UniProtKB/TrEMBL annotation:
Organism: Nezara viridula (Southern green stink bug)
Family listed: Belongs to the tryptophan 2,3-dioxygenase family.
EC number(s) on file: 1.13.11.11
Cofactor(s) for this UniProt protein: heme
Protein's name in the database: Tryptophan 2,3-dioxygenase
Pathway connected to this protein: Amino-acid degradation; L-tryptophan degradation via kynurenine pathway; L-kynurenine from L-tryptophan: step 1/2; Pigment biosynthesis; ommochrome biosynthesis
HAMAP family: T23O
Subunit structure, interactors included: Homotetramer. Dimer of dimers.
Amino acid sequence: MDTQQRIEAAKLTESENGMLYGEYLQLDKILSAQRLLSEVHKATVPDEHLFIITHQAYELWFKQIIFDLDWIIAVFSNHMGLDESETLGIIKRLNRIVLILKVLVEQVMVLETMTPLDFMDFRGYLCPASGFQSMQFRDIEKKLGLRLENKSLLKPCDQNKDKEIQENSKENDLSLAELVERWLERTPGLEENGFNFWGKYKKNVESLLNMYYNATLDAKTDCEKQKRMADYERRKATFDSVTDIKLHESLVQRGERRFRHKALQGAIMITFYRDEPRFSQPHQILMLLMDIDSLVTKWRYNHVIMVQRMIGSQSLGTGGSSGYHYLRSTLSDRYKVFLDLFNLSSYLLPRGYIPPLSSQIRSQINLYKDYISQTNDDTSA
Ligand code: HEM
């Protein structure tokens, strides 16, 4: 059978069984969507083809991320509390988002094969188009829980785009960060009249700090004593910032912390007891959320390095921002949605100081599902 005969046979099978590859994927639309502006201006720059394909590939992956994020958000939005039978599904999808982001971080390198001079040849045709106007990117940021102050950087002539972005995102929808915060607040074991994890944690922090303080008294020389005292004071200030609710709230107000105090307690508790069967999946979820945050930051970093290489650090962006300098500012901690999870390690205790679980809480967390429905009954009563 020659090639032509094989195509004819495939077409026959298509009409009998359904559709062909190209039709199913609507490749006619996707593959005809690369319009080189340099070609339109009769000065074709071949690398513009790569530039368009790269952006389109990004947008397709953004679409998949949004699709999976929507599913995760819907599951977390359950007012009865997270249905435990869904946690594996959440982990599967978070993990997929992590893997896609890894591809997106690496993909920057393909575009770096274009030289700045080639880019200069067609950049002028793009203005004012910019990745800054990627509504899907903004949507991902918003669904994750980033506050979108940067929108004000859009140029006045782009205000319509700004409106479009706002209209497309329902203001009242809770972000993943807000939903995770609500979920963490329900961590079993936090109740003051039950296991009272926080009461036990504070007591053990006190013993730990006493141990450090006593170590300063044992120092043999003044110099050693000063060093130990400075170390003690630094540790004390760190723990105070989490045990003193007022201090915590002032940090939240300054934007240096985000979660409500109870949610932070839940995250610390899950981190301590992650080996308990009922806490191991919640712990995986926390790790994956941090992976997402770090990969978005890594993407921002790779992108900004590429931008500097292509347009330098003095040119304005086609979207109207200060370009390189604006993008550099997005690498700061303010752009980490799950910053509190990254900082958890500062509040951990050495193993010997972790409050042991009582048999009651052990059985409680092994009956987590029943516990959640009981709590809901209690609060609605
Ligand atoms: C030659 C390659 C590229 C250059 C020179 C470039 C340049 C820039 C600049 C200067 C900005 C700041 C906004 C402005 O335009 O004023 C920006 C933002 C952005 N670019 Fe690119 N970009 C490139 C490739 C890409 C690619 C491949 C993507 C993939 C989708 C992308 C996505 C974005 C996004 C999402 C933003 C907004 C970032 C934020 O506000 O945090 N860019 N880009």
